[in-house]
Amino acid sequence: MRVALAQTDCRLGDVEGNLVDAERIIKDAAADDADLVVFPELSLTGYALGQLADDISLWPDDPRLADLARHGPDVVIGLLEDGRIRRHNSALYLSGGQLVHNHRKLYLPNYLIWEERKHASPGQHMRAFDTKHGRFATLICNDAWQPMLPWLAAQDGAELLIVPANSAAKLTGGSFDPAEYWHDLLTFTARMQQCWVLFVNRVGDEAGVRFWGGSRVLDPWGSVVATAATWDEALTIVDIDPAAVRRRRREIPLLADARLGLLRRELERLINESGDD
């Protein structure tokens, strides 16, 4: 399977222009025989939604989105989704002009410079899904920082985790380095869930924030097999072997003894004690 990481710099609020750019990149990936093209989080709308006066959300069945997946490769694209009353930070998986899966970001950061809960509502479901290339799952940026979600995706059969992100280069004046954290997190996720991980971050400057890129592919052993440059736009083409997941999970069956009943009982206890449902 050949995947393409589309590390892009979108223009805030310019949905039409970002669609044109996305189509051009997809055609370039198709010329390199890519099977899947993955774009960053909110790649059609931009991140600083609070600076926009107009509602730029899109319906998931917008024909312009379906058209992106008519050039050969499957496509994962990020947008602000129009959910009628609510808006969602969503990543759509499109194939052959059809919507295969819609993942709505589950964990919306609302600290430091991030104010996502002002502009979007959290999703309510995490599901792995079948494609013609295998069984995948999508986790948008901060979703991947919640340790239970990659594990749940793997337990649901996901052999490849797609992680679109908008990760800024610097959040505070302290020693926190997002790139270093992402490296450790992605390595741990790939190694412990024994799956391929595609991390696609954006680049560029927006509303005083600089995005660092560094998109990458990790194999089921936790090794980085390809990395895009920092700061600059890039289309990184990588060949992966989905069957490596099954080989790795057979070598060391870390996921086989899940004890889901035990987890259900303990989660129910914690919910009852905390009142958090």
From TrEMBL:
Q: Where is the CN hydrolase domain?
A: 1-242
Q: Name one GO molecular function term.
A: N-carbamoylputrescine amidase activity
Q: Which CDD domains match?
A: nitrilase_8
| Gene3D superfamilies on file | Carbon-nitrogen hydrolase
Kindly state which keywords UniProt assigns to this record, in alphabetical order: Hydrolase
Q: Where are the transmembrane segments?
A: none
| Pfam families named in the record | CN_hydrolase (PF00795)
**InterPro entries attached here?**
Aliph_Amidase/BUP (IPR050345), C-N_Hydrolase (IPR003010), C-N_Hydrolase_sf (IPR036526)
Q: Does the keyword Hydrolase apply?
A: yes
One Gene Ontology BP term is: putrescine biosynthetic process from arginine
Q: Which PANTHER family match?
A: BETA-UREIDOPROPIONASE, NITRILASE C965.09-RELATED
The name this protein goes by in its record: Putative amidohydrolase
The protein's organism comes out as Saccharomonospora marina XMU15
